[in-house]
Amino acid sequence: MNLETLKGKVPFTAKEACYQEERLAVLDEHFRKMLRKEEILCAGYALSRNGKMFANNAMGDLDYSDRGGKKLRPDSVFAIASITKIFTAVAILKLVEDGMMTLDQFVGDFIPEFKAEPFNKIKVLHLLNHTSGLIPDGGVLHNDYYVGWSEFVKEDVGKEWIEAILKCGMRREPGEEWCYCTAGFMLLGEIITRVSGVFCHDYIEKNIMEPCEMTNSTFYMERVDADNTYIREEWMKERFEAIKNNAQSERDKARSGLPRTGGGIFSTCEDLIKFGNMLINNGIHNGKRIIGRKALEAMFRNTTEPTLRNFAWDAGGAYKAYGVGIDIYTWRDKSQLITPGLVNHEGYGPSCLMIDPEENFVAVWSAQFQNYDIWYPHALRNVASIIWSGIE
Fold it and tell me: Could you give the 3-state DSSP secondary structure of residue 364?
């Protein structure tokens, strides 16, 4: 078990970023406790305030099957999972600000299959804020007999995946309920491809990642440094080995054409800090415009109606505020000591990107569970409280 904190080079000190450095020791010890209890296999994080990155640390193992072997490093790559959805939302907003589409257009305007009832009322914004009414991800609703949309897609992988999603039907009318749906972000990827004329992965990499200088980020596993990537499950090991030996299965080749805009990016904590700072800096990175300020204002603005209810993950029908592809922390939330109005997105693992416009603060972390059948909220909620406690 690797408990040592490896510190990456950063251009600023905590003091220069107006942050209490001693709180970093508290954060490190919190992660070490989780490592000792074998709740997580590794943890990495990066922090930035006022555009000044002052922490980029890592601890734990790089490979779930090689305990005590390779160490997770500050520059290690990991699958960011659903944090990918923020990139997809930015891509959609870029197309909107270029006049190529609007958020209130019907999905059927771009994907003809959605012109048929009951899907013809779904708008692009419904996909972005998880209110489309389409069947949600598996595990979102507690039902032992529920089969998520992804199980249907597996049957038609690389072929009629849109039809596979439609086969699941609708859970609610659009706008009635917040229910987390990654299928909606696959469809957004398809819309990006059809509107821009460029495959969605390439559009996002060319127009967002590259100008943000995210040099260690990609959708494509064959471009990832497998020797410095966190391996969390056997399928990843097998896929990397197949790529190395030019022996990908036909199924894997077919899957490569599906939009993985709901959770397919590989990145690093440092790269995600660059992305977060771009968003908090009105869409500018190193003097280069990635997206406009007004588009980001729209992204961070609440888009849901007061009547909206949330039953996902035992929410019990509570109201849910949500932006354009990004979660909004409001005064109603009581679990964390963070700023109301902060926006964030978690990624399965868990990983998190939090952006606090009021404090000009960006935090990224990834604490990979040892057993994905058990969810430890203190890898997210408690971590956020510790991080925000150091802001001066």
Answer: strand
